[in-house]
Specification:
The protein has 460 residues and is an alpha+beta fold. The chain is built from 13 helices and 18 strands. It is elongated and about 110 Å long.
Amino acid sequence: MLDRTYLRENPDEVRDAVDRKGVDGVDVDAILALDEEWRELKARGDDLRHERNEVSSQIGQLKQDGKEEEAQEAIDRSQELKAELEDVEERADELAERLERDLLRLPNVPHESVPVGEDESDNVERYREGFDDLREMPDDVTPHYDLGEELDVLDFERGAKVSGGGFQFVKGGGARLEHALVQFMLDVHREQEYVDVLPPIPVNSESMEGTGQLPKFAEDAYRVGARQDDEYEDDDLWLLPTAEVPVTNMYRDEILLDDDLPVKHQAFSPNFRREAGEHGTETRGYVRVHQFHKVELVNFVRPEESYDRLEGLLDEAEEVLRRLELPYRVLDMCTGDMGFTQAKKYDIEVWAPGDDMEDGPAEGGRWLEVSSVSNFEDFQARRAGLRYRPERHEGAEYLHTLNGSGVAVPRVMVAIMEYYQNEDGTVTVPEALRPYMGGQEVIEGHDRVGESALGAGERD
């Protein structure tokens, strides 16, 4: 949430942010007019309260002086002022509620260093890593969705049967690889002094508002409810779309001490997203799915340190890909392709060579976003009431929040299955993961189960 004072003093910057981030249905001028009316009502209320106090203080003295008629006039005036004050306060409270809702719809203002642009084509590539010494791969790399079915480590058909499209079973060596990735990532970030958090999976609406998922992204989230006596009851809970939501809200409406900062938490969780509006995009495979795992990194820092911490957080997320020896690149996201809540954002994209895409690197393949590393400045802190006290005798101030995926597991799985693919259709396990897989060096797949594994003649 933007500070009201900032909105009043910098309306052009806010209008520009609304325009550049493509936020529809937000009228900055209407919000400013609402704020102006609210401030006028607050001032009128203060005047009425002051006058009523003065009148009330005179009543006793007038009665004591025997001026009953004047005392009664003062009493009548006091009642008039009370009634008018109640009307003004009621109207002010109504406007404050509307203003609060409208402020939640205003996006964060991009930092001055963010490239100006309209869409992903205007993002700026900062650098690439890992392309100087690529491993030897098959001439024709099989896409992960075909390879996964051939090895029987990814089962999309049975996942859809159980839960619908966008869900899957990960089996055998694939499941073992995914577990290994999670434990590996957690260990890497423990070395970077992150404290583990295992968060609750359902989160309430207040928490979703605190990090900016609501109200803008309600259609992308899964709502939780229960059926009681043949009626659906809303529990005001959502399946978390990212562990950023519960971890950021851990300290909601609390005041941290200066000595506490920086706070660095990492959280592994399943994540659930409907991906509304993305129909027809990445419908095959393990790239855009409704349930996926990742390790999330969340930082709480002093405002003056947040941009140095952003660079540090980026390096911490990259370390996972460096140790896995996966080629990747880092993008500086432009204003038009940056999220609603971010002041500045980097994307880390891993290279997956299985599908040729127009925007892929010279070597072919495609880029898969595996982490968005973001500085929200005090945007989330204002929504969630996250503050710290610089000195024990000083007033509390809003801190800055940052987060980044460390990293999204399914897309790293895709990159490993394609980049570490061998001519015989097996997958070499990256050296960094072998201790987490009992020394296993190659994923060879396993025998299928059921009649579907048989040929037509064998079934007959």
